[in-house]
Amino acid sequence: MTRPLLILLLLTSVGSSLLIGAIWNIARNASFNQELYSFRAGFVTERRDAIEEFVGMAAAYAALRTREADSQLRAHLQTEVSQAHDIITALYDRLRGTMPPSEVKKLILETLRPLRFNQGRGYFFVVDLVGVELLYPIAPEFEGKNILGLQDESGTYVIRDEIRVVKESGEGFTEGYWKKPGISGDARFRKLSFVKLFEPFDWYIGAGDYIDEIDAATRAETLTWLATLRFSQGNTFLYSQTFEGKLLFSNGEILEGGAQNPITAERGSTILDPQVLKDIEANPAGRFFELPTTNASIGDAGPLPVRTVFAIGIPSWRWVLAAEFRSDEINLEIRDRNQKFRKEMLVRTFSIGLVSLAAAIIGSVFSIMMSTRLSRALQAFMREFEKSALALEPMKAEFRWSEFSTIATSANTIIAGRKLIDNDLRASLAKEEMLVREIHHRVKNNLAIISSLIRLRSAHLETDADRFAMRDIEQRMEAIAMIHARLYRGKDMENVDMADYMIDLGKNLSGMIPGSARISLIARADPLSLPNDIAVTVGLLFSEAATNALKHAFKNRPDGRLELSLLEQGDELVMRVADNGVGLPPDALSGSQKSLGMVLINSLAEQLGGSLSLSSDGGAVITVTFPKPVKKI
Fold it and tell me: What is the pLDDT of residues 496-507, one digit of tens each?
């Protein structure tokens, strides 16, 4: 086949393909324009219906969770008050006729006064049916006064309301709105109370709590779930503000503590302004707002777009849930559809162009040849580059392709700079490590000096109590000093090997308390390392608990056993100090003992973020369970 014929066949094939492609493109373009016209006509109505359903679903979920929190608080208050009522009823039945009624009343009130619940927030109050406050533990100055005229922040006469409930039903719930102590501003908080008639003295007993204290966890869980919701159409997202204007979450991001207006959200949409928030607070039912915006999404000239917002208020949590779309979103949608259409046309045109097989084959062959040569050159370049990068040495700057030579020259400059930086970093790291070791060494020495001074001073103290107190301080100093000694002697200056440390701690404790030599002290730990700050706290806690045991557990006993252990349990660590001595006193088990030792043990357990448990079965057992910390690298 002659060359002209080949050219003619190629041109005919290409021309036929282009003609077929042009006819198809014209027909498809006319169909696409009709689709855009239909889409534009129904966009606004469809989008308004969709965001109304979207926000309504979110609001229904939030309302359901608020009712759950309310029911939970009601059940809890009724249980607490009923139990307290049973206590004073039993007390009245037992004392009736054995002492004057005035003494019985006083004893009943003093029995209720110290009782607390809900982490110490909850207390019991007692009022007679003429409105005299008989018991008010958090403000005793009101006791004995008639408080019938007491009103909450909404103007409700709360005592009159409570008296009405107990007279009509014997027991029931009341609620009011109050400012919470320690919180500034005009915010009012809903407080729920349960009251129950005590017939023998014409009293009623009650207790209350703020609903927001109970549903804080519920609000957090609800907020987390709502923040994940996305609108099924476009990029619209759910956002939430408080009635006071603080932004709670937007675009899937929860904002810690809230952020004040104005806030710019995704694609320039601004969050609701104060006047809109006031309107929603006054009328929380769902409604639409047409609001202006400050910028356009596409950047073309013309009037600024309008925001169509649908918002619903959640009065019990003082939240507003909202979603929106903008009038220029249709242009964004059309732009996206145009882009997809162009891509579709490009793919189809390219598919038709494949008919031009001769040109494609020639281009492919040429590309393969060039690609092979380039690949070989690139492999050679990369081998040289990797070799130079690993050794931080200059690479040769002469290659068959001039572009690679240019890259090699630039790479050599970077390698030279990297080598200088690497040397500086190594020197700086060595100096820093030396300084840190010196700091730990000096801290250890200083603690040793202090311990020696304490020991010298103890020799001149007159009483055993003073000497024991000074020895306790010395023991705590030794526990900390051992940590620093291990850090400056070991290779790892950030973490402490607890298995070895526990052995040293046990040896050190054995010689600190007079008479402790007769006690069998066993210290053990799983093979694990802890960051030095955690290790110091753990050491102090072990030291404090073991010292208490050595001092008090084995009095008047010829021998004994004391075991210290630190063991891994899943994602937690369990510290345990156990002896076979006399056991813990009842006030320590009940938590009422306020000795220095127990205060320190509780405080150290809290520093670890752990939980403390005490038992006295065959001796004292102190257990602290805390999260396993992430090892420093």
Answer: 888 888 888 777
